[in-house]
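Consider the following assembly input.
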Amino acid sequence: MSPKPKIPKEEGEPKKSLASTRGALTRSFKERDGLGAYTHDPAAFPGSRVIYYNDDFVAINDLYPKSTVHVLLLPRTPLSRLHPFDAFDNPSLLASVQAETAKLKHLVATELQRRYGRFSAQDREREAILNGEKEWEAGKELPVGRDWEKELLVGVHAHPSMNDLHVHILAPDMVSECMRHRKHYTSFNTPFLVDIADFPLAKDDPRRHPRNAEYHQRDLICWRCGKNFLNKFKQLKEHLVEEFEEWKKE
Amino acid sequence: MSPKPKIPKEEGEPKKSLASTRGALTRSFKERDGLGAYTHDPAAFPGSRVIYYNDDFVAINDLYPKSTVHVLLLPRTPLSRLHPFDAFDNPSLLASVQAETAKLKHLVATELQRRYGRFSAQDREREAILNGEKEWEAGKELPVGRDWEKELLVGVHAHPSMNDLHVHILAPDMVSECMRHRKHYTSFNTPFLVDIADFPLAKDDPRRHPRNAEYHQRDLICWRCGKNFLNKFKQLKEHLVEEFEEWKKE
DNA sequence: TATTCCGATAGTGAC
DNA sequence: GTCACTATCGGAATGAG
């Protein structure tokens, strides 16, 4: 019935090459340092994983996406080895990351519109025009349609698993074969995800000293309808597929 | 590597017929009442499960044996619906059960000798005579050999899962494909198993009011060498196979 | 707090 | 406390040549 979940793997990018790209650092390579290879030499990855890069950032598709669209923004700075809360104490870096995040959010929103706009009530007029099903005055600006950007989840984990600074940007659907454990869900649907817009954090922001475990032991709550699934992860997963279908139609 | 455990099933004895033999009682049939069918009409079971029966007892092979030999003694009395601790407050029944248990133990011990005597150091001389490898004076009594009876586990569970009174008699090896959960092990290797010889229990015997759960949460201890396997049930299972081989050689 | 693999643990239903 | 089935929960290793 349910197909065996595929292990994400991209052309020319087996795990071995992740390590070998680090050359002399191979001996100290750890799974949690895997993102460093992208900021070190993004051009070394010929597959579709790197979305774009410039002097200061690399944007990649998450290797284990937890939603239908899930990308990471990687700042190319020595500060990236710090915990995000510490790194973002640097106002210059924070401003830079927030600006680049805004750009990447726009890109992701465009991708959502491309994928799901045809199902969306809010995008209907815009889609009809684009499809030539509705007349539109030449040169007149298209209706803006659905604001996909405002629905995105954007932020850093309070206790990241990967050592290099990375900002998550993802659709809210949580529909993915890589969504396998309850922690995958809670890490994006509790205060364990700290919105990039919330920085700089106040000195007394409770998220600075999270009881990390607590967030992950919370009941599983549907992000869209609020239904409580307690610890029934599989039932939540099935529900998320249904919510995804409805969400696209908004 | 490891074959899929087989589901015990005997010829002409599917579960449905267990129920149907109870006729009008079918509607109230519960899994936990399955043993009642044997005392009700032991002749209705043509397979090898019934070892013998008489007016007062039925001896059967356990459908889910937890050792290489594992039989049950079922008293044919209305008292069999009582908890064993209460049923054995009846001195007449207790004496009767203890006497029949002694007979069945002898039968089981004979079966162990038949199966494993050829491997046993204590049975070596006896086996050699029986095989004609050693001269023996005609009419002279054979050496008695190993006392297999004294190694048997014999008793009732402090909280039986089947509602009809049954006395377990089994080899100590705990080697069986039906030994699948840690509770299967602890139920025969802690005070949760109350020896039939210990009845009548003293009024203040602590086993009368067992913290049932406690016995099943104990560490897993090898019955033969005393090694502690904590909660590593699979490792214990592998170890039990090795101990079984050594035990046969005693 | 990543992944995967394996195994221990827990809840359900059986008629 | 039986069984079997499913799913949840938990620890350990993970690279490299």
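Chains B and A do not touch (no CB pair under 8 Å). Ask yourself how this observation constrains the way the partners meet.
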